[in-house]
Amino acid sequence: MNMLLKQTLTASILSTMIAGTAFAAPAEAPPAFIKRVADGLIGRLKADHAKLQNNPAAVKAIVRQNLDPYVDSQAFTRIVMGTYATNQYSTAAQRAQFEKNFRETLIENYGTAFAKFSNQTYSMRPYKATGSANPVVTIDFNNNGEKIPVSFQLADKGSQWKIRNINVSGIDLGLQFRNQFAATVKRNGGNLDKAIANFEPDADAAVKKK
């Protein structure tokens, strides 16, 4: 094979690989993805309900196994840190530390929330594709006759969807957590390292804002 032909074939293969990567998209429809994640998590919580009473560590472990892999923590970090997520206000190391800490506290928040819903039924709202890169899928949890809407905003990660933000009963948790973090920075005199170390997002307080 001469050198020109070899170079041409190599370039063709590389361009095909790059194009395939650029246009890759999750094969799963957004509502199917959310239903799979919700069924997996709630199913585990229901199956182990008796063992989970007064056992937050066990709840946290189940949530970590069944929800954490589907959360886009980098997107959450950017949303919650807000302007502090830019190079002007923080370093890459600070953002990485925030993401690590925030992911841990997210698991605790979601563990508490989903444990409350573990004995409840839910229904999927009709979904209409809009072509958005961040589609939203809404679930209505039936809590003793009261419907509690929980909307999941997704991010297209190529091979699968991931959850980048959550809205509960009309409350944007990402935005509320951002306000909580900004208040934490202020309480710590603008010291970002201290604010990151001390930040504890409170989902219950965020939802009660309504």
From TrEMBL:
Signal peptide (from-to): 1-24
Record keyword Signal present: yes
Top-level taxon: Bacteria
Keyword terms, alphabetized: Signal
InterPro entries: MlaC/ttg2D, Tgt2/MlaC_sf
One Pfam assignment: MlaC
Name listed for the protein in its UniProt record: Toluene tolerance protein
